[in-house]
Amino acid sequence: MKNTLDTIQSLIGGVTAVLLSALGLLVVAQVVFGEATSLNVISNLQGILDGFVGQGASLAGIITLLLVVALLQRKKE
């Protein structure tokens, strides 16, 4: 059972790493190429962050943001 959980945790960690790398690549591509890119990644990220800390933000949104940041920064033991 522990081996299965370790495998699933490793898989999820790998997928998360790939998605974060792709997000970074898309942000850099948008900065370099500007309007020529088909995705507006920076605007989408701003929209997500506005939900956490923008005009309609609440304490629950800020707590959620802190939890997401803590999960992304968690170091593997």
Write the layout of secondary structure elements.
Elements: H1 2-33, H2 41-53, H3 59-73
Helix pairs in contact: 2-3
Question: What can you see in these coordinates?
Answer:
The chain is mostly helical. It has one domain (2-73). The protein is 78% helix and 0% strand. The chain has 3 helices and no strands. α2 crosses α3. The radius of gyration is 16 Å and the shape is flat. The model has no long low-confidence stretch (mean pLDDT 80).
Labels describing this entry:
single chain, 77 residues, mainly alpha, 0% strand, flat
Please give a quick description of this structure.
The protein has 3 helices and no strands.
| Unreliable stretches covering 5 or more consecutive residues | none
Mean pLDDT: 80
The domain count comes to: 1
- Total helix count? 3
| Span of the ends, CA to CA | 19 Å
Estimated share of beta-strand residues: under 5%
Helix content: over 70%
| Secondary structural class | mainly alpha
Tell me about the largest β-sheet.
none
- Anisotropy-based shape: flat
Instruction: Please provide the count of β strands.
Output: 0
Rg from alpha-carbon coordinates: 16 Å
User: What is the string of SSEs from the N terminus onward?
Assistant: HHH
